[in-house]
Write a structure and sequence with these properties.
By secondary structure, the chain is of the alpha/beta class. It is built from eleven helices and 16 strands. It binds S-adenosyl-L-homocysteine. S-adenosyl-L-homocysteine (SAH) binds next to helix 6 and strand 11.
């Protein structure tokens, strides 16, 4: 195992009392070493046919790593509860403390639950659509200590909201922003459209790989910052930038990968669908004085088609799509843009394998495969794959 891998063997999982009901940590019945072996096997099964899989990069202290915690609010026998949905259901399993969540976030959520009755505030009932508090979302910048609390309500009335926020701040003076989000719809999405800032700036800032990042309630931000630095470090190493390259950062979120790469590239172009994330990305470019970076709000596939249509070229393409992976529209145009290197980051080896097959049939070769354990105790595995363009002249030599 790589040097950062936890070696502890003691106490085979199951230390969490909610293990079975919650379903969030599917691998808790294994030691951490066994989990890493499981993830290696999963990566080899799906990606092994493309080349050698490097040893997975594990986490030194694989606990309380989640910087973003979400709790659903409801009732049991007339008592307000908060916790997680039981796997594949909407029954709430009350959870006070979780071994993978940020401890501070768990404390804040418990205190909000305790505050509700004194303000005569109720929790939301999904069946009737009545009641008040539906979810609480907490995001904490591990490097800066900044904390965002999002109160998601089912109604658009928040009685005594100023007093409620004051009472919360009295208990947790380190909260830096409080946002009220309204979500009255029949939906499994946590956040609704409407957002009001009740306290602070409405976003938090965190530091990753030496760069500052502004993060909004709805923007995607990697949930395990300790491992994210290793993930991005691997991706940037794979790209082997020299300062002369034109780099694309597709599915760029708040611009993290592109901005980390920007010091070593001539130009960075990022594309992302979520408007709030793009706004953050543009602010992040300013925050880091990166004037060689531009961000666009668009579907990554449509954007690539337009770029390919304009005969644009790229030297390096970073792509980090969601679990569903990329699509042929995107991949076809990616091939037309003809980057010499593609660094494909994925949280789903199955869709990644599908997309790699397309790229390998269309002029690319897999050079390196590096799994990183971003989500200890769960069955998810993150992978970084380096592809290089098979050069036309090499092919001629072969013929
Ligand atoms: N690279 C970023 C974000 C990765 S998560 C990081 O490391 O933080 C995947 C991102 O893809 C999310 O921000 C999501 O909003 C975005 N996304 C999803 N579908 C997309 C699409 N069709 N086009 C562009 N971006 C998309």
């Amino acid at each position: 195992m790589k040097q950062n891998t936890a070696k502890q063997k003691k106490g085979k999982g199951n230390s969490c009392p909610f293990y079975k009901k919650c379903g969030g940590c599917q691998l808790q019945n294994m030691t951490y070493e066994e989990q890493l072996s499981f993830k290696m096997a999963k990566t080899i099964k799906n990606l092994g046919r493309f080349g050698h899989v490097e040893e997975i990069i594990g986490m030194e202290k694989p606990y309380h790593y989640r910087n973003k915690v979400q709790a659903a609010f409801g009732y049991t026998r007339g008592r307000i509860i908060s916790g997680v949905y039981q796997s594949s259901s909407h029954n709430i399993v009350p959870v006070e403390k979780c071994m993978i969540e940020d401890e501070k976030a768990d404390e804040i959520i418990s205190d909000i639950r305790r505050l509700l009755p004194s303000f005569r505030l109720t929790s939301y009932n999904e069946d009737t659509g009545r009641g008040f508090l539906r979810h609480v979302l907490v995001k904490r910048g591990f490097a800066t200590g900044e904390i965002m609390v999002v109160l998601v309500t089912g109604t658009n009335i928040f009685p005594k909201k100023e007093e409620f926020v004051s009472a919360l701040l009295k208990k947790h003076g380190d909260i830096t922003t409080v946002i009220w989000n309204i979500n009255g719809g029949k939906t499994s999405l946590v956040l609704g459209e409407k957002e009001t800032v009740l306290y602070g700036k409405g976003y938090i800032t965190d530091i990753l790989c030496g760069k500052s990042f502004r993060i909004s309630a709805k923007s995607f931000y990697q949930i395990n910052p300790v491992q994210t630095e290793k993930l991005y470090g691997t991706a940037i190493d794979f790209a082997a930038l020299t300062g002369k390259e034109r780099v694309f950062d597709a599915y760029c979120g708040i611009g993290t990968i592109g901005l980390v790469a920007s010091d070593r590239a001539k130009e960075v172009i990022g594309v992302e669908l979520n408007a709030q994330a793009v706004r953050d990305a543009k602010n992040n470019a300013r925050l880091n004085n990166a004037d060689n970076v531009s961000f666009y709000c668009d579907d990554a596939g449509d954007f690539m088609v337009a770029m390919a249509g304009d005969n644009e070229k790229a030297d390096v393409l970073f792509m980090d799509p969601p679990r569903a992976g990329s699509d042929v529209k995107f991949l076809k145009s990616a091939v037309t843009l003809a980057p010499k290197k593609i660094v494909y980051i994925s949280c789903n080896v199955e869709t990644q394998a599908r997309d790699l097959s397309y790229l390998c049939k269309n002029g690319y070769r897999v050079e390196k495969i590096q799994p990183v354990d971003m989500f200890p105790h769960t069955n998810h595995v993150e992978t970084v794959v380096l592809l290089s363009q098979r050069r036309p002249d090499t092919q001629r030599h072969k013929a």
